[in-house]
UniProtKB/TrEMBL annotation:
It comes from the Bacteria. CDD domains: DNA_BRE_C. Gene3D superfamilies: 1.10.150.130, Intergrase catalytic core. This is Tyrosine-type recombinase/integrase. One of its GO terms (molecular function) is DNA binding. Belongs to the 'phage' integrase family.
Length: 312
């Protein structure tokens, strides 16, 4: 007789022995999704993993899609299916996996928002005004440099915020990314114009480094400048400048903009995959946005001008 595993025990095993190396933020997202499933299962008197039937999974996903969204239900589907699959792969579970492909909801393809060049220039201009007029220009110059690094190098925001001062090689014009989502170090090039902005920042940084930290970026209140702090600063900028119709701007929008511009000007998907730190080219393809207008312009003019088009 096969060993039965309680759902609660399965979650503990999954987090403590299988995905313990993942980032805390990722694990929190997984935990929320799995907890929703566990709550549903226990309410339906399913104490063990293999007690949950295929029909019950369909009911769970349908209810979740109604109370949240189809998109989120699909996300939970992927997380909990992987939860089952990994437990099976590691021989903690020998039952069926009740999550089937046909359970995924079909989603309407929405046109993704990509930052426009004129919006980017307006944001840079706003940073410059703040730096010039403020008695304490440090936070504005710091945020400007973070913004420019994300825009021109394709780093994930947390990769940028976790940089150490020695990770920036001014001589060879590269940034070494150590703390990555895939746990693989990589080098990315720095635009010469951005290099000059980093040098300006380093001068002011040395005057504000109260804690003698080796972190490239830090806040006024603690040693670490956190993702949410930078995200909120972008949110305020988006509202002030009325960026996109929803007045929303996230750090990841800058990574998407970099990827689209890279393909537009360089047309090499495989190099882009390495720069973005993706393990699969399929992930890279999601980031790319080439409009009909871009294609027409390239066909008309040949190679499009270099990506260095902003005044810093």
């Amino acid at each position: 007789m096969k060993n039965k595993i309680k759902i609660i025990d399965a979650k503990n095993i999954y987090f403590e022995k299988i995905i313990y190396q993942l980032k805390e933020r990722t694990k929190k997202g997984y935990s929320r999704a799995i907890d929703l499933f566990i709550k549903f299962a226990l309410e339906h008197r399913n104490k063990y993993l293999d007690d949950v039937s295929i029909e019950e999974v369909r009911t769970f996903l349908n209810e979740l899609a109604t109370s949240t969204s189809k998109q989120y239900a699909n996300k939970v589907y992927s997380i909990v299916k992987s939860f089952y699959q990994k437990l099976s792969d590691y021989n903690y579970y020998q039952g069926i996996i009740p999550f089937k492909p046909y359970m995924l909801f079909k989603l309407e393809k929405k046109v993704k928002y990509y930052l426009q060049d004129n919006e980017i220039q307006r944001i840079i201009n706003l940073y410059n005004r703040k730096i010039e007029r403020s008695k304490d220009p440090f936070p504005y110059l710091r945020n400007k440099v973070i913004f420019l690094i994300l825009l021109t190098s394709g780093l994930r925001c947390n990769e940028c915020l976790n940089l150490k001062i020695n990770d920036v090689d001014l001589k060879n014009k590269t940034i070494l990314i150590r703390n990555t989502k895939t746990y693989k170090e990589r080098l990315v090039p720095i635009n010469q114009n951005i290099l000059e902005e980093i040098k300006k920042y380093l001068e002011i940084r040395s005057l504000n480094n109260k804690w003698d930290t080796d972190s490239l970026f830090f806040s006024d209140k603690n040693k670490i400048y956190k993702y949410d702090s930078f995200r909120r600063s972008l949110y305020r900028i988006a509202i002030k400048l009325k960026v996109n119709k929803n007045h929303k701007l996230f750090p990841h929008n800058l990574r998407h903009k970099f990827a689209s511009d890279w393909i537009k000007y360089n047309s090499n998907m495989f190099k882009l995959k390495v720069i973005l730190g993706h393990s699969s080219i399929k992930t890279t393809e999601i980031y790319v946005n080439i409009s009909d207008a871009d294609i027409c312009e390239e066909n008309k003019n040949g190679k499009i001008k270099n990506v260095s088009k902003y005044k810093y």
